[in-house]
## 1
Amino acid sequence: MKITYDFGHGTGQDRGASGYRNEEHDCREYGALVIKKLQALGHTCYNCTPPASPALALGQSLAYRVNKANSIGSQLHICMHVNAFETDKATGCEVEYASASGQTYASKVSAEISAALGLTNRGPKNQPGLYVLKYTKMTAILVEPFFCDNKNDCSKYNAERLATAIVKGITGIDTSVKPKVIPKPAAQIAPKYDESMPSGSNIFNIPNIHGYIEETTDGRLTIHKDRGNYVAIGKGFSDLYWNDNNGNGGHKRICG
Ligand SMILES: [Zn+2]
């Protein structure tokens, strides 16, 4: 999809709100992540934010965004902002729209933000008079994910989670950064064995030594450190057996 976007304010007389957090900073921070994720999903995105310089009057700043989006002819335009009202008086996320198709996006995006950040869902809000929503020719939404003058809202701000939620609302795709899967240690290969010294008529327990010699039923002579570690001497061959009783072990013909 061809997507245009603009980050709110940031030039001349068009200034963002400021409270516990700063709108111009935050909408550029989470907004950049939104665009990165949309691009990773294969969407073509065009920035319609006016540069900070030259300084523009409010009307010029808004017209710049609309004109650029209309000239590109995108299918969707996303305005990224942060809300403000009076200190600690308003809370939650909302997404503004001015068309039926905008309402569908607005509803999904607001619900995703609410779920991801644990914010009150103020939901989609019909704002047909908002300049950018009114004059852009394509479907457009204006994201107001939280109130920068509400302390509790600000404590929930997380740019990555917010961006993931917005992208999920728009595309239906979860782009959250997955924690790396730590591979499980390999299953134990060598079996555990009993570490006690055996006894029997075929076993010679070496005096004062932790070890023994055994004649096996198949006629081999085995010299043991313990039941798991030994050399087996047969007629014309010798085998070595080792086992650390911690999953690691094996055997190898050493001659013959
Ligand atoms: Zn704003």
## 2
Amino acid sequence: MQKPNPIDEEIKLDPKRYIVSETDAKGKITYANDYFMEVSGYTQEELIGQPHSIVRHPDMPKVVFKLLWETLKKGKNINAVVKNLAKDGRYYWIFTEFEIRRDTDTGEIIGYHASRKTISKHVIEIIAELYKELLAIEKSEGVDASEKYLIAFLKEKGDDVNFANIMEEIHRFY
Ligand SMILES: Cc1cc2nc3c(=O)[nH]c(=O)nc-3n(C[C@H](O)[C@H](O)[C@H](O)COP(=O)(O)O)c2cc1C
């Protein structure tokens, strides 16, 4: 499917509703709730079986997804602020809680679950600035360089700070 051209128009989200989806172990969408479809503009048929990159916005740095997948593959849940692209080219910023789904008998990872909600304008401004910097570094020097920049940025905030807990912190603070 052709990716839509992004337009500079934000979708206003209902702070009381969550955008929820689930995937299999490979990251293919197996479930999307009504609000996911309403906001993204895609139908259930268009979403099921697709990877979530169907809503990937070109303003998102690769390093965020690299860290996301590395963390999930290690068996740890993670939160992240994400900018998504709707089918009509508009965008929406969300705070996303990614969770691993395990087989209750074997403990094996059988898929993932994501629950997304609105965040304050203030958080969006801080994160948008950081992501812009990371994206610019990726374009000129690649993803290893943007990861180094991000690690240095986090180190400046404190010794134990990593991507996962800065996202928690940001969310709690603002
Ligand atoms: C449960 C789950 C939900 C996800 N939700 C999103 C999402 O809303 N937006 C997004 O861009 N990527 C999301 N991803 C990450 C995508 O799998 C993918 O890594 C990302 O879109 C970058 O695409 P790429 O890996 O093809 O570059 C999600 C992953 C999982 C496991």
